Amino acid sequence: MDFVNMTVERSKVQLTKTDFESDQMVKWCPGCGAHAILAAVERVFPKIGYRKENFCIVSGIGCSSRFPYYVNTYGIHGIHGRAAAISTGVKIANPRLSVWMATGDGDSLAIGGNHFIHIIRRNVDINILLFNNQIYGLTKGQYSPTTPMGKVTKTSPQGTIEHPFTVGELVMGAQGTFFARVPDNNINMMTEAMFEAAKHDGTSIVEIMQNCIIFADKAHNEVTGKEVKDDTMLVVKNGEPMVFGKNHEKGLVLRDTRLEVVEIGQNGITIDDILVHDQYSQDPGIHLMLAKIAPPNYPMVFGVIRSAMFPTYDDMVEEQIKYAKETSKIRNVDDLLNSGDTWEI
Fold it and tell me: Residue 232: how many CA atoms within 13 Å on its side-chain side?
């Protein structure tokens, strides 16, 4: 699949990872999953092939929001929860930019929640990297909108009593057109998902299950840990059956309106019975199911879950501006001032 948005100028020379490395000292904690995310971005930007000057990284507040300093492109370090609003303005003002938004579960799902759902609903052509470490790391360990219920944190000494967001479910509910989920300990999978996000014309959300080694260490280990991941992670690829397990002996089937886990070779189940992934389906029904399921009864689904094509907000704005220029009788400020009703005093 070729890039849909050809308005972003492509580089005339082959760029490398080094071209995107910043001269700023990276100040994340040693062992933080954000280091791997940065490495993935530095790998994927040359692969995307745009001019370095046509990338723009926007952030809000939080550990993730230091990102603009650490990539050698243009960038804006915004204010808490407002990265989506800034990103929208950047893209509308200059459609020739590839806009990437670095944000966290606190930055975009709490104070920035309203902006987050509306940028998704509008389908602005922006790529959002959402670092989900299930904690407020920069402000020292308060629970966040994705912290599991019952988790003990600095602000929930007896355990949280709030139901957490499932990011993929929230994206689908806001009419999202692209959603991927990746772990921070797999740079190749992150790179592939980011590349698919760049190809998508519309708002793309890449949820990264990130480890905060200080305040929520091993938060995702029950899913992504080496000892369990064969049975708890299902990596989907378009056009392929949804299988998992150490020997790919398990899979998903759709029975009535529910997904079920089955074992291939048991009860007459064959590989032909396993549900085949269609990330490009316009209907979000199965995509929503895949985004919601999780252990202990199901695996958690990783990879590109949804990538459906719909008109984008920025393209439609461009069309309206073009139409107005071609049809409006008002061509300059004098025309505007002399239009409508006027009075002499």
Answer: 14
